[in-house]
Design brief:
- The complex is a heterodimer of chains A (263) and B (319).
- Chain A is mainly α and 263 residues long.
- Chain A contains twelve helices and no strands.
- In chain A, helix 1 crosses helix 6, helix 4 packs parallel to helix 7 and helix 4 packs antiparallel against helix 8.
- With 319 residues, chain B is of the alpha/beta class.
- In chain B, the strands form three sheets. A six-stranded mixed β-sheet of chain B has the order 6-7-8-3-9-10, sandwiched between helices.
- In chain B, a hairpin with a 4-residue loop joins strand 1 and strand 2.
- In chain B, helix 3 packs across helix 4 and helix 9 packs antiparallel against helix 10.
- The longest helix of chain B has 16 residues.
- The radius of gyration of chain B is 23 Å and the shape is globular.
- The two termini of chain B are 37 Å apart.
- The chains are: A mainly alpha (263), B alpha/beta (319).
- Chains A and B meet through helix 1 and helix 5 of A and helix 3 of B.
């Protein structure tokens, strides 16, 4: 019971930080909204989709997934910052559950995602995004996105605890998230990629997530999922498998790393 | 009763290449202050981290408040407070936010956490800045808040890792005052420092460590005797040297020495500024003008010189 309470206190600390420095929240929402506008108006005009409602219908699920994938970087750099400041040592010298700090942080970053996704959804609506599947499925899609962000948050914990320097963390996180989000069906059809890359893109968890969200938002066109492979046929199932795998691998790894953390 | 015991602690980094602790032993009697004195890289922080359960030793054993730190770290954490050399508080939050949060993490209920935070802010003269983000605090204020955070549940044993490193003289004085009050309140304290003066001011017992080993152990007085205590130094005009030599020797009780090139006369003294004033008064009545005068306290370097024959080298620990 105390373990949960301790974690929530850490989560509350993050919310307090946002209240004290609201710029953080403002900029973490401005950036994805900017992506929505850039992609919608810069690429949207030149990508032929055959999708009723235009490119923006395919784009929005892609950008949602990309944004929650960046949670990894947010979690990693937040934790690395705590390490640098010696805060981790203080927390570890307290009589609290050992995993409270990292569980609390992953929860806090997910809460931030709720706000960011809501703002992005509204921005998307303003530029023509119209999901056709009904409220329930749309809500399910957002829940799904939050879980994906939560799972990746644990990868961020591992990276944040592993790096020796907070500046390296930023670089490593981007090295992980950029290829992951662009080597996918998020922004452009995978059919235009060289064959080997197509395989990578098809099995990429970001692609399965994007495809699953598109399904949940009521889209037919899977934007490049043509090969008839298992992930492209069953994006929802595959995404669940990926999220499970990420958690099964990275939760114990991160907890172990945290217990032995010493800077 | 020995509240803190460490026996033969060994800790290596980089797969044995860097030996941080090399069989270090120490103990602290209940309600007393032990100062661990040594240069950077001597093993001070490693010792504190092991005792505060943040690090496991490669070998050796340690206990705090009768609890084994390796077997029951979670129980040790309930009786200790730790304040490190970097202020480990959340800088974006206010002082009050921090203390309430740590109080909650010590499982105080909301009201108790708030009450304790207010008490501590008052005790450490931080009430006025309670609602400001820590970012805006001075170095001394940050350290005081950090110390306050380690005192939320009145720990039995307090570890302070270089509490005044990097503070200006005023900040240091304030910190000493705060620590002295705590000691009067009966806490058992282990304090690491690079300053002999600080150890002298605060500690009952001092150990000097170098390369992860204890190289001297004793009270401040015993240690100073070994090192040679304070020296009084006066620089005068050539013509006044014989008379001044006489005065300094009389006050010191030892034959004063003369550095002819610098025209500097010096001798060990045990009464500090009293001796200084006496020398100045005598010189004044003889009409001798002092060009420069001062008391030189033995520094960490002097301690190291006399204990090890080498200067306190600052080792870069590459990790």
């Amino acid at each position: 019971m105390n373990a949960i309470k301790d974690s929530l206190i850490i989560t509350k600390r993050q919310l307090l930080q946002l209240a004290r420095v609201p710029e953080v929240l403002i900029f973490s929402t401005i950036q994805p909204v900017m992506f929505v506008l850039l992609f919608r108006y810069v690429f949207g005009g030149s990508i032929e989709t055959g999708q009723p409602g235009g490119y923006v219908q395919l784009l929005m699920p892609g950008i949602f997934v990309q944004t929650v994938a960046f949670t990894l970087a947010a979690t990693a750099s937040g934790l690395a910052e705590d390490m640098k400041k010696g805060l981790i040592d203080r927390f570890r010298s307290l009589p609290i559950s050992r995993s409270a700090l990292i569980v609390g942080r992953t929860l806090g970053d997910s809460l931030l995602n709720i706000v960011v996704l809501a703002v992005m959804g509204m921005a998307g609506y303003l530029v023509g995004w119209r999901p056709t599947s009904g409220l329930l499925k749309v809500a399910l899609a957002f829940l799904f996105l939050l879980f994906f962000g939560y799972a990746l948050s644990w990868v961020g914990i591992y990276i944040g605890l592993s790096a020796r320097d907070a500046r390296v963390v930023q670089n490593v996180s981007f090295l992980v998230t950029f290829p992951l989000t662009f080597l996918s069906n998020a922004f452009a059809p995978t059919t235009g990629m060289p064959r080997p890359l197509q395989y990578v893109a098809e099995w990429n968890p970001v692609s399965t997530m994007v495809a699953a969200c598109r399904q949940l938002f009521g889209l037919e066109n899977q934007f490049g999922a043509t090969a008839g492979s298992f992930p492209s046929e069953n994006p929802l199932t595959m995404s669940f498998i990926y999220m499970g795998l990420i958690m099964v691998v990275f939760v114990p790894l991160s907890v172990k790393k945290y217990k032995n953390a010493s800077n | 009763m020995k509240t803190v015991i460490a026996e033969n602690l060994v800790k290596t980094y980089n797969k044995g290449k860097v030996k941080a602790l090399d069989g270090l032993s120490l103990d602290v009697e209940e309600g007393t202050v032990l100062s661990v004195l040594g240069p950077n890289g001597a093993g001070k922080t490693t010792t504190v981290r092991i005792l505060a359960t943040l690090l496991s030793p490669d070998s050796g054993r340690a206990s705090v408040g009768g609890i084994d730190v390796i077997a029951h770290p979670e129980k040790v954490r309930e009786v200790i407070g730790l304040s490190g050399q970097y202020a480990a508080v959340d800088e974006t939050l206010t002082g009050w936010d921090n203390l309430v949060m740590f109080g909650r993490l010590y499982h105080l209920n909301k009201n108790a956490a708030v009450k304790r935070a207010d008490e501590l802010l008052e005790q450490f003269s931080l009430t006025e800045s309670a609602k400001r983000p820590i970012k805006t605090y001075s170095g001394g204020m940050r350290r005081r808040l950090d110390l306050a955070a380690s005192l939320i549940v009145k720990p039995k044993v307090l570890f302070l890792d270089e509490p005044t490193t990097g503070l200006d003289p005023r900040g240091r004085q304030e910190m000493w005052g705060v620590i002295e009050d705590l000691v009067k309140g009966g806490v058992t304290l282990l304090l690491t420092t690079q300053y002999l003066e600080e150890a002298d001011q605060l500690a009952d017992d001092i150990i000097v460590i170098d390369h992860g080993k204890v190289i001297a152990h004793g009270t401040s007085d015993a240690l100073k005797k070994e090192v040679g205590g304070e020296r009084l130094e006066v620089v005068v005009e050539q013509s006044s040297i014989p008379k001044t030599l006489e005065i300094v020797s009389r006050v010191s009780g030892n034959q004063a020495t003369l550095d002819e090139g610098l025209r500097r006369i010096s001798a060990p003294v045990s009464t500090g500024s009293m001796a200084l004033m006496e020398v100045l008064r005598s010189m004044d009545s003889e009409g001798i003008h002092a060009l420069d005068v001062g008391l030189k306290r033995p520094s960490l370097d002097d301690v190291f010189m006399s204990l090890t024959g080498h200067a306190a080298e600052v080792e870069e620990v590459t990790k």
